[in-house]
Design brief:
Nucleotidyltransferase, domain 5; 5 domains; 12 strands; elongated
């Protein structure tokens, strides 16, 4: 039929039969045959629909789809009824139904389900008057169509979870299921399906007592309610409005939700969402937890060749067999836990400051490990080679910082690459006279030449530092 219409249109535009044949890809005889029928006033005969084997079972199949049965289960149901049919025929028939825009409307019970998603809302001003990309989060209760919206400036998984918490507080309860799949927000989608973030969201779901469920693949109607909600807020709230800042946006959005969005007659249910929510759905929601969900900083890190990962400007060791691999981390106020394929492989106390190391010797191969005593003796010998005052500085550093002496001592030793051992040793002497042992101070003494200045220096009790 489409080819007939095309040929008719081209013929009326005075295209030649040869031109029409070239444009449509048909041979000249076919084009000539169609044009002859057009000139005779004969319309192209409608194609008679071929009956399908499952047409008489169509209503039953639609009911099975209403029950969320898969094609395999529907095939089994038909076989149980004595219908001799192949699975491929059932699969093709279901696809035919969906191609013809027939879809199953999924009904839910009060308190059973919510759907969530992000939608891009353009640029708005933050509280510093800076234009920011803005997304709107929507959680919609499927039974009442009661909506919660929130404007945010990023699509992080942590933001996504916080929006859930805010929505649950807004509803005063928690639905049994939350549909979270098919996320369109690019950054959120990219991170949400990494194992570490999956684990965080699962912990959150367990804490609040709901079940996260995915939408069926290629079934956009599974989450049509919240997609309608995103479209509704973009066209009915954001469109044509300007906001002074973030606070102004949030205030106006809250007023719109309370006075307009949830109080209108819904286009599908023909009922007011707030009334349905208050009367039927809110009593069915699960109770909110008594304690807050404790967020952990999570992420992934690559293990360096020195068997350490870098977290918040400090270094933490990982067993050597994971060198070059990506590991997951969980960071709390006091602990850093490191995982690989969901298995905990290391745990460290949080290190304060910057540039510090938390190293567990067992994380190195045995042939790489030397005892603490051997390591100290090695560097004491290097400092002693510089001079007696440098060795005293070493003992002072060891006494003051028994666990973090390496970087300072290595720094002082490295000064011999620039200055003579005598200058470094005299600089250590001057530092000792002021009872300081910082690498930076000793470096400055070497640099400014103050090691030559007279000092009052009392004899140092070597044994005092040694013990």
């Amino acid at each position: 039929m489409a080819d007939y219409t095309t040929i008719e249109t081209l013929w009326k535009k005075t295209k030649s039969k040869n031109e029409i044949a070239r444009i449509t890809g048909h041979n000249w005889r076919t084009v000539n045959k169609v044009i002859k029928k057009i000139e005779e006033g004969k319309g192209f005969p409608d194609k008679k629909p071929h009956p399908r084997k499952l047409d008489k079972y169509k209503d039953s199949i639609l009911q099975y789809l209403e029950q969320n049965l898969s094609g395999v289960r529907i095939h089994e149901k038909l076989l149980e009824r004595g219908v001799a049919i192949k699975y491929s025929t059932v699969k093709s028939f279901i696809a035919h139904i969906k191609r013809n825009d027939i879809f199953v409307r999924i009904h839910t019970k009060p308190g059973e389900e919510a759907q969530v998603d992000f939608g891009y809302a353009g640029y708005t001003l933050d509280n510093n008057k800076k234009r920011r990309k803005t997304w709107v989060f929507n959680m919609r209760l499927s039974y009442s169509r009661y909506d919660y919206f929130e404007a945010v400036y990023d699509q992080k998984v942590e933001t996504f979870i916080q929006c859930h918490i805010n929505a649950f507080n807004f509803f005063g309860g928690i639905p049994e299921f939350v549909k979270i799949d098919n996320l369109k927000a690019a950054i959120l989608h990219a991170n949400f399906y990494e194992p570490v973030y999956q684990k965080l969201y699962k912990q959150f779901a367990q804490h609040y007592g709901f079940n996260p469920i995915p939408c069926r693949i290629y079934s956009p109607n599974d989450k049509g309610k919240v997609e309608s909600g995103i479209k509704y807020v973009k066209t009915n709230f954001f469109a044509g409005r300007k906001f002074d800042n973030k606070d102004d946006l949030q205030k106006k959005l809250k007023d719109w939700i309370d006075k307009k969005c949830n109080c209108r007659v819904h286009g599908t249910t023909r009922k007011v969402p707030k009334e349905i929510f208050t009367t039927f759905e809110k009593p069915k929601l699960l109770a909110l937890p008594t304690d807050d969900f404790k967020f952990l900083d999570v992420g992934t890190r690559k293990v360096y060749h020195d068997c350490h990962i870098f977290v918040d400007y400090n270094y933490y060791s990982v067993p050597y067999k994971y060198v070059g691999k990506d590991v997951e981390i969980e960071l709390s106020k006091k602990l850093l836990k490191i995982f690989y394929n969901y298995q905990e492989i290391a745990c460290h106390p949080r290190v304060s400051g910057k540039g510090e190391f938390s190293t567990i010797n067992e994380h190195y191969p045995k042939y790489k490990i030397i005892s603490t005593t051997e390591y100290q003796e090695k560097y004491q010998a290097k400092m002693s080679k510089i001079g007696g005052f440098a060795e005293l500085i070493f003992l002072l550093i060891l006494q003051k910082n028994p666990n973090y002496w390496q970087r300072t001592v290595k720094g002082i030793v490295s000064l011999t690459k620039i200055y003579s051992a005598e200058i470094v040793n005299l600089s250590c002497k001057r530092a000792l006279s002021y009872n300081v042992h910082s690498y930076q101070i000793i470096k400055n003494i070497c640099k400014n030449g103050s090691y030559n200045l007279p000092i009052e220096f009392q004899e140092v009790n070597y044994e005092l530092y040694k013990n």
